[in-house]
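Let us walk through a complete example step by step. Step one is to write down the protein sequence. Step two is to encode the small molecule, flavin-adenine dinucleotide, as a SMILES string so that its atoms and bonds are unambiguous. Step three, shown after the inputs, is the structure prediction itself.
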Amino acid sequence: MNAPDPLAPLLRELGPDIVSTDAGLRQRRAGDWSGAPKAVPPAILRPRSTDEVSRCLALCHRLGLAVVPQGGMTGLAGGGNPAPGQIVLSLDRLAGIEELDREAATLTVKAGTPLQVAQEAAQEAGLYLGLDIGSRGSCQIGGNLATNAGGNRVIRYGMARAMVLGLEVVLADGTVITALDKAMKNNTGYDLKQLFIGAEGTLGVITRAVLRLHPLPRSRTTAFLSATGFEAGLRLLRRLQSELGGVSAFEVMWPDFYDYVVGHPDTGVAPLPKGQPFYVLTEYEGNDAAADGGRVEAALAGALEAGDVTDAVIAKTEKEARDFWIVREGLALERLPHLVNYDVSLAIGRIGEFAGRCRDALAKRWPEGLSTFYGHIGDGNLHISASAGAAAGNVEHEMDEIVYGIVGDMAGSISAEHGIGILKRPYLSRSRSPAEIELMRRIKAAFDPKGILNPGKVI
Ligand SMILES: Cc1cc2nc3c(=O)[nH]c(=O)nc-3n(C[C@H](O)[C@H](O)[C@H](O)COP(=O)(O)OP(=O)(O)OC[C@H]3O[C@@H](n4cnc5c(N)ncnc54)[C@H](O)[C@@H]3O)c2cc1C
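Step three: the predicted structure of the complex.
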């Protein structure tokens, strides 16, 4: 006897406008940007409203069908990748700005709204959304919140979680929870919205959010510097924070990263000579366009005098600032054979030691390889892009064991901002205790007793 066809009841009860079986669309929805296992889903559910999301989930719940929520599919952990046979629920048609409240400084958006659209809507009103990541044109607010995205301005504005005042979600059985608060204060029991933020679509589907906005900065000063080492870089960060009252970005690069990246034509002009012990890209956003540049220069002059900084260049145009960021984005790394990327976090003071231990361990095991280190150290976040070399082939599992072993030893986290998804699930216990994992399982069972929402992800 043939297995029952899940498409027939979906099509019958939801209709072909919501249930798409288009081959091209299904192909595009097979997997995200990560190298995690992919599968072409049998159908894509494309609701246009919260009520339609609720109908989709209630039906899948009744039929016992696994559903994978998908946003812009820019994820780097495979969280949105369906396993064979799993239905996808795409938020792409549930998009748009609902309201910009100037008095409350809030933006109410539908989950499928691309991040860049939300940023531009805030800016047009003279306000500012603190969240910014490289995938801004494609990723969606729902995906940003489901992954608790970090990015370039965490040091000033916090992670995505810090920008959420209110949330609407649909639970696995179709129940709609609408809590679109606009106030910062609401101490009325458990802060339920926080459970869905960073849950990677395993506890509910985010349909709308109220985001907190900030005043639009009037000036931005971007500088690229070389420093005598990690400790000097950290002293520079503390100096800038104390003299300027905070920076909006503080990105660091070790020479293995910088020297490789600026050697490639697609990176453009190298802002500083290669071969220095440490590089920093920093950005200050302020409200006094006439004086802010001078304040940054004075703070950097102090660091040069103290001997922490060896060279510095301040962007004179927006194009020059953009060129600095192109270096930091490190796109040339994609050319490394069998590239493996890591996104870990540690106590800030231990990052230099961690980078040294990791580099040594990887070089000892694969002398022909290259490991590059860079990240947002103000947030304790370090990225590693490593290759064992063309001849070594795919050694991802062995490399994971080495890197996550050191992360575990140094009480760090195996995921700072990209999430667990499928890729890091086998290593969750390196960063979470058995009691924490058991509590996560109990929460999952309480929210989704049939286990239909994004099964096989996170825990
Ligand atoms: C070039 C590039 C740069 C990047 N830079 C950064 C960076 O600096 N910082 C950073 O943190 N990340 C970064 N990322 C990773 C990625 O962009 C983020 O994780 C982003 O938040 C994912 O959003 P998305 O809409 O693409 O989600 P998807 O990839 O579609 O999904 C991600 C997860 O969220 C779930 N999900 C999606 N939408 C919903 C919803 N509405 N309700 C419930 N669950 C949902 C999915 O099931 C999945 O588990 C980058 C990626 C790229 C490609």
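Step four is interpretation. The chain has 14 helices and 18 strands.
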